Amino acid sequence: MSAFDIEFAAVTDIGKIREKNEDSVLISSDLGLGVVADGMGGHSAGEIASNIAVHVLEETIRKVNTGELKMPETFLPKLDNTERKMLMAANLANAAIYTTAQASEIYKMMGTTLTGVMFDGDNATAVHVGDSRIYLFRDGKLVQVTTDHSLAMEHVRRGLLTKAEADKSKIQNVLTRAMGIKKNVEFDLLRFPVKLGDVMVLCSDGLYKGMNETQLAEQLEQGKNLPLVKLCKQLVRVSNDNDGQDNISAVMIKILPPQRLTFKQKVRRFFGCY
Q1: Domain map (residue ranges) of the chain
Q2: How many other C-beta atoms are found inside a 10 Å radius of the C-beta of residue 234?
Q3: Model pTM?
Q4: Which end of the chain is more exposed for a tag (fewer CB within 10 A), N or C?
Q5: pLDDT tens sequence across 125-144
Q6: Helix 81-102 to helix 45-66 angle, to the nearest 10 degrees?
Q7: pLDDT mean across residues, the chain
Q8: Cα separation of 95 and 42, whole Å?
Q9: In this predicted model, what pLDDT tens digit does every residue of 183-199 receive, in sequence order?
Q10: What is the dotted CATH code of the domain comprising 5-146+175-271?
């Protein structure tokens, strides 16, 4: 259980030119979980892949928590229990997408990014693959927590591009890792402490293509007193107005002091807002 109260909001939008929304978002207040996935593949394959990713992740964690599914004792025993759950769930999600893809010729190249975070105590555990992102807004400063698995970011690491150049590069969309493409995929696993007042933004690339980090930080600072779902909708709207060439999705998470909620507030918080 978290030492804080955690508020979640999620919004996904098709954008201006895409015919389908291949992003998927999921928030679960009772699990302390937020997830974004950005699918790819055509013939609705991307939509299917991202949907499998978020729901298998959530379902696996829930089954482990209830005891319906057991984690093998030999599965990464040196990791924290939450880290083990997140990695096992992500790997099962990848296997489900890969199996679905291999069973049909039209789905053979489908895949998806996956960026999810779950809270326990004073810590957040994130699992990540692809170019969706987690941003942390703390004390007025914005930091990108995750690293993009893209060819452009590989060029940044080699000193061939600056990050600003990479964000505008034509090779930005070329992923070096994604779910469902191979039988096994390497996930980044991150664990970090959270503090009161932290705000996290999990987003597909459609959001940050329409809003650079300076603009995102300004929006978060100016909207810090807005209801979280209203701020989340505002981020998606501003990005869509600026670009809108892709699907746009955001999950927002705010770390609040423990508080007593009314029954109506508990129901709204449990179901979240899409």
Answers
A1: 5-146+175-271
A2: 17
A3: 0.91
A4: N
A5: 999 999 999 999 999 999 99
A6: 140
A7: 93
A8: 20
A9: 999 999 999 999 999 99
A10: 3.60.40.10
